[in-house]
Amino acid sequence: MAGTGTIAGPAPVAPAITMDDRCIRIYCNIVGNLDLSPRVMRSMLDKECDDKRSNETYRQLMERRLGRAYGNGEWKKLASFSANVLETSTDSTKLDVTPLFLLFTKLFGLGKGGAFKDPTALLAKLGAVKKLRNDVMHDLDNAVDAQKFTELTAALEELVREAGRFYALPQADVDAEVQNLNNDIDKVRRMDSQIIYYWCARLASSGKRAIRLLWKAKFEHEKLSLNHETVQRQEVFHALDMNVRETDGGKTVSYTEIFEAREKVMVVTGVAGAGKTTLVKNIVLQFFNPQQTAPGYLRPFNQLIFFECRDRTTPTLSDVIQQHYEELCIELLKENVLMALLRLDVLFIIDGFDEVNENSRKVVLEIIMKTWRSNCRVLITTRPHAVKELAPLLRLNDVSSTQYEILPLTKLADQLAFLRRYEAALGGDTLTGEVSKSFESLSEDVRSLFTEPINLVHFCEMHKHFPKEISSWKMPGDVAPVKLRLYKELIQTKLAGSINEDSDILIKDMFNAVGAAALELLNDDVLILMEADHLVIKEKIQKTPKSNDEVDPAAVLSVMLKEHKPLCSNRSSSYEFKHKSEQEMFAGNYIVQRIIGGYADSLYSILGVPKEGMSRLREVLLYVVAALSRDSPRHLTRRWPQLKEALCYAGVTRNAVMACVASCPNAGMLGDLVGDGSSLHVREDRHVDAAVAMLSLSKPDAVEVYMEAAALRGAPWGALVAAAGGAGVWLTLSSPDAYEPHDDLLLPLHDSG
Ligand SMILES: Nc1ncnc2c1ncn2[C@@H]1O[C@H](COP(=O)(O)OP(=O)(O)OP(=O)(O)O)[C@@H](O)[C@H]1O
C-alpha cells in the first residue's frame, strides 16, 4: 500500500497474529479513515490545486486566490487547528481528513480564476467522509462497528464519482479511480501487521483500557495535607471558572469551555493552590471513567497522555509513552507506539511547567514539536511567573496558544459549596454542616483570606484540628496563630524525605528567616517582594543551621508566598504573603522568638523602626502581646513597659485592645493602655471577660457597656460590675421585646456605688 506510513523505526519481531474479529473491524475502520480517505481527498485536492506552484504553501495559494495576505489573527481564526500544517505544507502528503476538508471548503469559497462551479454536492460527499472519520476516531463503539467501514467505502466511491462530475473528468478515468479504490479496500481486508495503522488499531482497541487502571490508582483519591485523610477526588471537585487572558477585560468561561479555543495549545495559569493540578487530574479521571462515556468536551480525543514537569527521570517522549502503554510497548516497541499514537486524536496534558527541569524540558519540547498535526491538542498548566519562559518556547516552534487564568473563589456561595463537598466527603454519613456554618459565621474580612481552593481545604483542616480557635476569629489577624501551626505542618510535609533530623528546629529557623524579612518589609511599608528580596530570603533559609542541599528554599517559600507574573515579559516575578495578616504573623512570630529566646536587645532594636514609624507595626505588636500572653506570660510582664510604649506610639485602638484581650485573657495588662481619665467600652459579650481582666490591672474613670440584654445575661456581668470598683458603670441595654423586664441585670448594680 503506497504511502501508508510503513514503520520507520526498528521493526519489531512480527507478532503471531491472533487477531480477534473485533480488532480486525477496528483495523479496517482505522485504515479506512486514516489512510484511504485522505488518499482519495488528496488526489482530489491535486485537481483542485492544479495551479499551485510547487514551492507554494497552501496558505500562500489561498492568499493568491484571495488577492491579499491574511493577517495572522485572521488566519488562525480561519484555519483553526489546521493553521500550522496549512501554512507549512507545500504538498498534500501530510494532510489528513480534517485539514483537507477545511482546505476544500475555504478554496471553494475563494473561487478559482473567476469561474464559479457550485460545490454543494461535492461538499456534501466530503462532509460525509469527514463525519465518518470523527465518528470512528472519537468513539470506540463506532470503531468496532463493521457497518461503519461499509458506509465509508460507499461514501468514498460516491466522492470519487462526484469529483469526476465536478472536475469534468473523462468517465474512463473515474472508473479507473474507483477500481483502484476497490483494490485498496480489498487490501485493507487482508490486514497487514507491519504498517503503522495496525499499531493505531491496537492502540485504539486496547490503549485506553490499558492505562485506565494506572491513572485510576494514581488520581482517584486525594490525600489531605495534614491528617492524611483521603477523599474521592471527583466527589470534592469544584468546577472553577477561568478568565480568558487574551481578551482584554477577561471573559469568564467554565473549565470545559477552554477546549473550545481555536488554538491547539491551551495554557492554564493559576497562583499556588489555585487548583491547576486538581483540574487536570479531574480531566484525566473524567476521560478514563469506565462508568460513563467521556463528557462532550473530551469526546474528540481518542487517547490522553499525562506528563508532570517535576518528573526528572523520563528523558524522552517515547519513555513517557512506555509508562502509559507498558504491555503494548513490549510487543510493538515504544517508538512505534509513539508514531502510531500521533496519528490518533490525542490530548497531551503537561502539568506544572513552572517546575520544569533539564530532563522534562526536553519531553515538553518533544511534545510541542511532534503535535503539529491537527488531531493533537496540548493543555499546559503553570504558575503565572513561568509563562514568560513558556511563551517563547511555543513561539519558537510556531505554536499559538490561548491563555486562561483560574479565578479565585470570592463569592460566599461558591466558598460554601466548595466546603460542603469536602465536609460531605470527610464526614461520611454524618454530614453536620458544621464546617460551612462555621465559615459562614466568619466576618467578611476573615473570609477574604480563603479565596484559593488550597486555603479552603486548609480551613476544613483547621476546623477539624482547631475548631475552638476558629469560632473566636473576628479579624483577619485572628487566623494567624492557627495558620502558623498549619504552615508548620505543611512545610514538614514538603520537607519529608529531604531531612533526616527533627524538623522542628529547622522550621523554627526558617520561620525566623522569613519573619525577619517580613518585619523589615513592613517597616519599609512594603508588601510586594521583588525578585531580589525573594532571593535574600531564599539565601537565609539555605543558611539556617540544620538546612542541607536537599532542602529547596523556593519550595519552602512557595508554601508561604504567592507569586505574581509580570504583565511585561522582560520583568521578573514579584511575591506577596498570602495576606497582609500573614506577613504580620510571620513578623510577629519572629519578634516573639527573639524575646523568648532571651535576647537582651531592646524591643526597639528588635523592631528596627523609629517611634514615628511604629503605626506600621500596630497589628504586629498586638500579635506579639497575644502570642506572649499565650506562650510565655513572664516575658510579657518583663517586656510590658517597652511593649506598652510601642503600642501607644502605634496608636492602638480601644477596640483592638479589647479584641486582643478577648482572644488572649492573659493579656489583661493591655487595660493599661486604656489610660486614666478615659472609659472602657464593652460592646460584645465575649469582651465582658476581657474587661474584667483589664480592670484588675487598670482603673479607667468609667466602664460603658452597650449590649443586647440577652447577650449580657450570658456573660459575667456581675463580675464586671465588681471589678469596676470605684469607676462609674454606664449600661445601655437593647432588646427586641420592648416590654421585657430587665430587673435581673440591675441587681449586680445594687450597692455597687
Ligand atoms: N477544583 C477544586 N476542587 C476541589 N478541591 C480543589 C480544587 N482545586 C484545588 N483543590 C484543593 O486545593 C489543593 C491545591 O490545589 P492544586 O494542587 O491543584 O493547586 P495548584 O494550582 O496546582 O498549586 P501549585 O501551583 O502549588 O502546584 C488540592 O490538593 C485540593 O485539595
Describe this structure in words.
This protein has a seven-stranded mixed sheet, sandwiched between helices. The protein is elongated, with a radius of gyration of 35 Å. Among the domains are: 21-193, no CATH class; 204-215 and 235-406, Rossmann fold; 655-753, no CATH class. The protein is 55% helix and 10% strand. It has 35 helices and 15 strands. The protein is of the alpha/beta class. The N and C termini lie far apart (110 Å). The relative contact order is 0.06. Bound molecules: adenosine-5'-triphosphate.
SS-based class: alpha/beta
Query: What does the average pLDDT come to?
Result: 83
Bulk shape: elongated
Q: Which strand order does the major sheet show?
A: 4-3-9-5-8-7-6
Our measurement of the CA-to-CA distance between the termini, rounded to an integer number of angstroms, reads: 110 Å
Low-confidence stretches: 1-19
Q: Which ligands are bound? A: adenosine-5'-triphosphate
Count of helical regions? 35
Q: How many strand units?
A: 15
Largest sheet: 7 strands, mixed
- CATH topology label of one domain: Rossmann fold
What is the assigned CATH homologous superfamily of one domain? Answer: P-loop containing nucleotide triphosphate hydrolases
Corresponding CATH architecture of one domain? 3-Layer(aba) Sandwich
What is the CATH domain class of one domain?
Alpha Beta
What percent strand? Answer: 5-15%
Specify Rg, calculated over alpha carbons.
Answer: 35 Å
Instruction: Name the helicity range.
Output: 40-55%
